[in-house]
Amino acid sequence: MATLKFKDPSPYVKGPQGAPPVDYLYARYLENIKMTSKEGNSQGKIQMALFGAGRAGSIHLSSMTQNPRVTVRYVVDDDQSKWIAIKSYWHLDNSEFLLSKDSNRVFQDAGVQAVVVASPTVCHEETIRGALLSGKHIFCEKPVAQDSESAERCYQLAARCGKTLFCAFNRRFDPAYSLLKERVRQGEVGHVQTIKVCSRDSPLPTIAYLRTSGGIFHDCAVHDIDIMCWVLGEYPHRVTAHEYAHTPEIAAIGDHDTVAVVLSFPSGTLGMIDLSRNSTYGYDQRLEVFGPRGMLTCNNERPMCGMESHIGLRGRLAEPIYFSFSSRYQLAYVNEMEHFLDVIQGKDMLKVLGHETLAVSKIASACEESARLGQSVELTWKAEDLPPK
To answer: Can you tell me which residues the record assigns to a coiled coil (predicted)?
Structure first.
């Protein structure tokens, strides 16, 4: 009877308990129940075309086919041997498949409102120009073009045409990273003194992919640079980078598999990137922000997060972390597609701006130069190039 005095009233008297804001999946469930998240869909379905049905293209095709706002009107891919399988697997019975040489069919179709560009980088600029000049919005895998000058031309053309050119930096749309950024911007740790990103790839990419990837700085480090600058709301004024190739086959093509970067920011914050092409224990993705009031971290996520074993005297064993980017950032890919659709339907403002993607490319090039020269590289910024606060 000693604890009877602590007995609470009936939960039905107290009223229903609300879900915590961080339970984003429950929030989405409520949206589906109430059918509030797609308000304004009287505009009709958005007809879209996909350019490139490879590694990234298949991820976006999954988002497109499962989205009630989208109709996939065209798939443009030069590997005809995949067409029947793609059509069957994704139930694209009403979609038309084209070779890239026939892209004008897409551009001339006034019913197509948007295109997703996931083809090889060398094709991006031509596809973007064709789509913009025919009045279509663009969702583009990074990089927008092969070099910064070409990417800038694409953004300038998008501005003249009054169309959206969205570069898909998917980590910004990951729920954990988004929450960390929000809490940093609310001052939870105070002025950030250090920010660390650990990004170790899994599985080891093929040599064929690496030959055309643009190098570890522009293929991998750009994501780490972007997330760091996005969280902080500033760009570095100095970078110092070191690189090494432990894998002979990667060294033979003039690339590297291991990178360490220190970024110095005008506010005094120091950033550190630990990057590897080959993590044998899974896709290692960690972010830490430290300040005078404490620390925030995003640690590795696991597909079986609640599963543990206690067998014999081996201690507690957990299941492996996610194996690769496609599984770790699955929700981020879905969220970025939702954001793109919201933008072109006038429901949201674009959250990845052109000058931000150009800045990330500039920083990556500075890191590449620092590693090559063996010394720090200084960066200067115009006021109009600075990130949104």
So the answer is: none
pLDDT digits (tens, 9 = 90+) for 271-283: 999 999 999 999 9
- Final residue before a domain boundary, out of 136, 168, 200: 168
Distance of CA 160 to the CA centre of its chain: 26
Mean pLDDT, rounded, for 172-186: 97
Domain end residue (candidates: 145, 168, 191): 168
pTM as predicted: 0.92
Q: Where are the beta strands (DSSP E) in 20-69?
A: 46-51
Question: Residues 371, 283, 332, 146: is their CA dihedral positive or negative?
Answer: positive
Give the number of domains in the chain: 2
Secondary structure (3-state) at 51 = strand
Per the rule left: phi > 0, alpha: psi between -120 and 50, beta: everything else, 260 is beta
Range of the domain at 203: 171-328+350-385
In this structure, are 254 and 139 located in the same domain?
no
As given in the structure block, the two tokens for residue 123 are 């094709």
